[in-house]
Amino acid sequence: MLLTRKEDLSSPYYANLHTRHFAPGWARPEPSMWAEPKPKFKPAVWRFAEAKQALDASHNMVPADQTERRNLIMVNPIEGNTYASTRHLVAAYQCVMARDRARTHRHSANALRLVLKGKPGIATIVNGTAIDMIPGDVLLTPGGCWHGHVNETDETGYWIDFLDIPFVQLCEAMFFEPYPDGEMEPVTSRGPTPMRIPAGEALGPGRDAKTVEVGAGIMPTIAMHLMRQPAGGRIDVGKTTVNHLYAVSSGKARFKVEAGTDEVLGVGDLIAVPCWHTHTIEAPEDTVIFRVSDEPLLKKLGLARNGAA
Ligand SMILES: [Fe+2]
């Protein structure tokens, strides 16, 4: 029951409840439960070309020693949100400029990255292992792993970061630690390492439609899938409580999401598809899409659920 008369809530009875930090369950401003998910987050698209231009421009505005990371966070455009891309995950475009470095740190949040532009000499160092950043590769830094980035080349390296920071913040379980004296962690190994998932290796040769999970079980909150579709291919995704981020790794993909979104994404572009939005992915040309989701988190909590077909 919701009260309709304003004077009810200003009566001495309700004023007294308020001062004692009680709220009457029968007069909530909005319900606390509902029949099925009604996500506040919206479908949203970010373009690599725009991010690259802005990151390049930041070179003259923000010295490297004034930023932990040179990145642009993909903030979902809903009221009051200043950070998250979907409810539990955040994505960001990041670069490390020629001869620059992003100093080593570690945190309780899990992180991974999809390399967009890189080459040998541009590397992520994970727990002492230097991993060259090659386009299409996925690099993992599970929670607690030291990691930093170095660029010993004359070209800028770019990638997309994916992290579960919004969820870790929600849990109030954030820990962050810079490497001592703001230094880079010394390189003790050059691999191989399970923290590098090479482009193409997981999918194998060919151009047939295929979706494979990569890095399964390494991070407790995040699932990663590589999705290959030949030109003319199509994937339909029904209502699910899982929140998705899709980034195009090669080719082009068209995303149609209920409530009006219809966008063609090229390499490096990213779309957030919040839970409970049916969507269709079409391949106007051969494409590989990298999908990042909170599926393991929801499964562990017994909250992974699909809507009626
Ligand atoms: Fe980090």
Note down, in words, how this protein is organized.
The protein is 11% helix and 34% strand. It is globular and about 70 Å long. The chain has a 6-stranded antiparallel sheet with strand order 1-19-16-21-14-13. It has helices at 6-9, 12-19, 48-58, 165-170, 295-300, and strands at residues 44-46, 71-73, 90-96, 101-107, 111-117, 122-126, 129-132, 138-141, 147-151, 157-163, 176-178, 196-197, 210-214, 223-229, 234-237, 244-250, 253-257, 261-265, 270-273, 279-282, 287-293. A hairpin with a 3-residue loop joins strand 17 and strand 18 (261-265). It has 5 helices and 21 strands. It is mainly beta. The structure holds fe (ii) ion. Residues 105, 107, 111, 147 line the site of fe (ii) ion (FE2). Fe (ii) ion (FE2) binds next to strand 4.
Salient structural properties:
six-stranded antiparallel sheet; 34% strand; 309 residues; 11% helix; binds fe (ii) ion; mainly beta
